[in-house]
Amino acid sequence: MKRKFINLLLLAAAAVGTGSxxxxxxxxxxxxxxxxxxxxxxxxARGAMTGLYHQMRAVFQTALIYWGDYRAGTFADGxxxxxxxxxxxxxxxxxxETKGTNWGSSYTAINDANLILKHVPGIAFANEADxxxxxxxxxxxRAYVYYNIARVWGDAPLxxxxxxxxxxxxxxxxDDAGRIYGQVxxxxxxxxxxxxxxxxxxxxxxxxxxxxxxADYYLWLYQTREGGPKTLETADEALAEVFKDSRLKLLxxxxxxxxxxxxxxxxxxxxxxxxxxEYEGGFASNYLLPQTRFHSASEHIETHVKxxxxxxxxxxxxxxxxxxxxxxxxDTRTPVSYGDWTDTDEGYHYTWVNKFAGLWQxxxxxxxxxxxxxxxxxxxxxKAEIENEKGDTPAAxxxxxxxxxxxxxxxxxxxxxxxxxxxxxxxTEYLKEFAAEGKxxxxxxxxxxxxxxxxxxxxxxxxxxxxxxxIASACMNxxxxxxQTVGYx
Length: 489
Fold this sequence. Notes:
It is globular and about 70 Å long. A two-stranded antiparallel sheet has the order 1-2. Among the domains are: 1-199 and 451-457 and 468-479, Serine Threonine Protein Phosphatase 5, Tetratricopeptide repeat; 381-450, no CATH class. The chain is mainly alpha-helical. Helices cover 44% and strands 9% of the residues.
């Protein structure tokens, strides 16, 4: 399908994390010529859904970690780090930051979803369930992307119409965050109404994936936006539907969840799919060590680490997170997520993030580890959080200890029945269980611990919008209607 850039004069459509601005919102979409020709049959609709998920991957393969981890004190500069993430690590963001401050590619994904919702209803399908699957996924992706936009920037443009030409000279304003959140709720329900129960492919949305987003969303509303008891109840009801899915379970081995040979296992609810020969990448290429960083070329490199890569090691777990991961030597997650090795012959110590390392084959590394967006372990921990909020901490312990037992190999690892102590235990397990999965920032905020547990945020709770993100100034220059996030310059 031929594509062209359509300048919607909102912000640059450079990939999240890049510093270039091609216009306010250069959304890459179908040209007017192909718009009338491509939406003819169900094959075109399937192709559009594939393109939708390619664009979603383009957004979250890096933004997931920028938005979800780098401001939480869980990462630091690696051996080849140049301080490029210093502003994120230290929560001193401003409009000159380029990583994570460009929402252009997010709106490209939204526009892809809008075009599907615009055209696919008019296409005849041999099986109506196939049509509903595509429409449900469009609603899901739009909901998921807008949910993240609202959490990252707060107020943002709300675009619900698919644009296919550059004829419209659009200069939209930022809508109130409440409208964005409201649209997320509507899209979640639309996705659930349409999603076939037969959908099981975890590389796209299924009913369980939509229910996980619903639980995530309503738990966020309850904890951060004064949603009230009804939102907590709705989150709980969504999780109950996830637990009914007979395909899903907590794997016995944490290592198996991330084993490159065991993709799409029974713990994965939704994942960003990467594959050799199709698409490789993600953020993990910045976590390993290139051979040039080793001080010897001994056989130890091959037999003990096997971490050669062409990219330099820009980021590594922070000392605080490493200390936490090694706090209990029984924790089986530590070697899966993190590696360190001392070359006793040379006297050098090496560290790296082990999770998502991909495949080492024929002296080359292929970054093809899938990146989970939702796992069954998170459903259990969401449930533990909900039970604690409902005042039933003993019940909450049951869910948290299921995750803890897999990690430590013992029953009843946690025993506290105090509400606040349980929240701290839950945060500890969120950090360990989901290390490098883009979850820590959101968990700190949701549990109300960001200003007490993140060192760079201590005592800063009165700073305006400190938990939101600025927009790159180069992008605002293209549209006078887009104003900087209040509190930033």
